[in-house]
Amino acid sequence: MTESTLIDLLDPIVAEHGLEIDELKIVRAGKHSVLRISLDGDGSEGHGPDLDQIADATRAISHALDEAEAPSNSPYTLEVSSRGVSAPLTRPAHWRRNATRLVEVTPLEGEKYTGRITSADEDGAELEIDGQPRHVDFGQVRRAVVQIEMNRKSRED
């Protein structure tokens, strides 16, 4: 099966779990393949899927692949995960799901800057940089990556 055929097969199954396929890759290694699927979604808090959602979706994906004899008749390993905090923000939903997080933005023109996402819509995001608001137009972003904060206080604090 091709990647697009697999996406067509798995999209509805993943959607039943409130998730979406963020990325799907087939990595071939001789007679063996690795099927890597990265899932994303709003989750119960609106900030991404939780482990239970990923586990439930993984079981459903595995069952569907067994039934379809996919990705081929050769042996394969299935790897399912969330997209991860270090994955670049490439869609508006990624920005929205990472509201309140610190993000490093590399614009198409100018210097990199870091700010906290306060909100996002389909066209851009609002950041807070050193206490000042700044609008980010997604069309002007080369790359944006969430910055991991080890000692960050929780939202309730």
UniProtKB/TrEMBL annotation:
Feature: compositional bias, Polar residues: 71-84
Gene3D superfamilies from the UniProt entry: RimP-like superfamily, N-terminal
Record family assignment: Belongs to the RimP family.
CDD domains recorded: YlxS_C
Cellular localisation: Cytoplasm
Listed GO biological process terms: ribosomal small subunit assembly; translation
Functional summary from the UniProt entry: Required for maturation of 30S ribosomal subunits.
Example of a GO cellular component annotation carried by this entry: cytosol
Pfam family, one: RimP_N
Domain spans labelled Ribosome maturation factor RimP N-terminal: 9-85
Superkingdom, natural source: Bacteria
NCBIfam families, alphabetized: PRK00092.2-2 (NF000930)
HAMAP family on file: RimP
Protein name stated in the entry: Ribosome maturation factor RimP
Signal peptide range: none
Region (Disordered): 66-85
Keywords: Cytoplasm, Ribosome biogenesis
UniProt xrefs under SUPFAM superfamilies: YhbC-like, N-terminal domain
Lineage, top ranks: Bacteria, Bacillati, Actinomycetota, Actinomycetes, Propionibacteriales
Every Ribosome maturation factor RimP C-terminal domain range: 89-149
